UniProtKB/TrEMBL annotation:
Domain of life: Bacteria
Protein's name in the database: Pilus assembly protein
Transmembrane segments: 20-40
Higher taxonomy: Bacteria, Pseudomonadati, Pseudomonadota, Betaproteobacteria, Burkholderiales
This protein's UniProt keywords: Membrane, Transmembrane, Transmembrane helix
Domain TadE-like: 12-54
Keyword check for Transmembrane helix: yes
Stored InterPro entries: TadE-like_dom (IPR012495)
Length: 157
């Protein structure tokens, strides 16, 4: 049995249509997934900074990984790392406390979070390197930069 002429002309058209549409659909899907990751990262870091400030205002030092001579500022940064669900290590981070910026751990000092009754403003500037070129078109240098912050008053410790 021979197929009618109009049916023979339609054979393989679904494959051609899929070949045209699939790359666009996959790029959109990847873009949505990466944008979701950016949103998740921002919210996770906001939570981590808030938890770090809540820890900082207590004056405690027990989160410092060093067993001897525990330092409050190292304990606060460790609390931020613990609360960030691994995002802290994936980001390029610059920490600002009360306006003073600390770009590396070697710049941290014992007085950076102030004393009892002081206001602590912790601001973290984050840079996330985009994984795919889909969203890199919309962000300079393929990096998503965002800032998260929290403000609280130190307790009397």
């Amino acid at each position: 049995m021979k197929l009618p002429a109009f049916k023979r002309r339609q054979r393989g058209s679904a494959v051609v249509e899929m070949a045209i549409i699939a790359p666009i659909a996959f790029l959109l899907l990847i873009g949505v997934i990466e944008y979701s990751i950016l949103f998740y990262t921002t919210l996770t870091m906001q939570y981590a900074v808030r938890e770090a400030v809540r820890y900082a205002v207590t004056g405690r030092t027990d989160k410092d990984p060093a067993a001897n001579n525990q330092q409050r500022y190292l304990a606060v940064v460790q609390q931020m790392k613990n609360s960030s669900m691994g995002m802290y290590d994936s980001l390029n981070v610059a920490i600002s406390v009360n306006g003073a910026t600390y770009a590396s751990t070697s710049a941290y000092n014992a007085n950076m979070f102030g004393g009892p009754g002081d206001i602590v403003v912790l601001r973290v500037d984050c840079t996330w390197k985009l994984a795919t070129p889909v969203l890199a078109v919309f962000f300079p240098n393929g990096e998503y930069k965002f800032t998260v912050a929290a403000t609280m008053q130190n307790e009397s410790f």
